[in-house]
Amino acid sequence: MNNRDRVTSRIVIPCRFAYLNCWRPVTQYNGIQKYTVAAIIDKEDKETITQIEDAIEYVKNQSIQLWGGRIPMNLKIPLHDGDEEKPDNSTFKNCYYINAKSKEPPQIVDSKVQTITDQTEVYSGCYGKISITLYSYNLGGAKGIAAWLGNIQKLRDGDPFTSKIGARDDFKVEEGR
User: Fold this and answer.
1) What residues contact 40, with CB distance under 8 A and at least 6 apart?
2) Does domain 3-161 correspond to CATH entry 2.40.50.140?
3) 0.90 exceeded by the pTM?
4) How would residue 110 be classed by pLDDT, with cut points 50, 70 and 90?
5) Confidence class for position 1, pLDDT limits 50, 70, 90
6) For the chain, which residues make up each domain, given as ranges?
7) Quick one: pLDDT at residue 132?
């Protein structure tokens, strides 16, 4: 079995979007451009967490051949505990998160599954759903499960995750200039 034969599991998860790069790809550490999102899931959302954990277990148990006949002890998984991994970032307090990436742009739709083209409508801090495909990998000694970003559905607004201050907050109207 090679990476082209890897096991996958596609799921849709409700979440809040952070570090959202759905309109333009960003350059990753390896120089490859990808569309990205950190999907934040409240720890109280037990149903979604269970769905993600079940999908991870499925991929894990079906990928043993890819990993040389056993599940690696240091297997990397895409579900992260925000309280443990980002304790100084209040965005991730009492939440889990998944970083999902893709070389292909996601389709971005509203609650009625109508295409959104206004780039100000979908931003870090709003709420929605993402489709992801969890997949196993074995690359250069690194073994794990990662999340490929499929599509994005915005469901409602939220407070934007930004420290940018609007020009109206910085300046006042200047008459006669």
Assistant:
1) 15, 16, 17, 18, 82, 91, 92, 95, 96, 97
2) yes
3) no
4) very high
5) very low
6) 3-161
7) 97
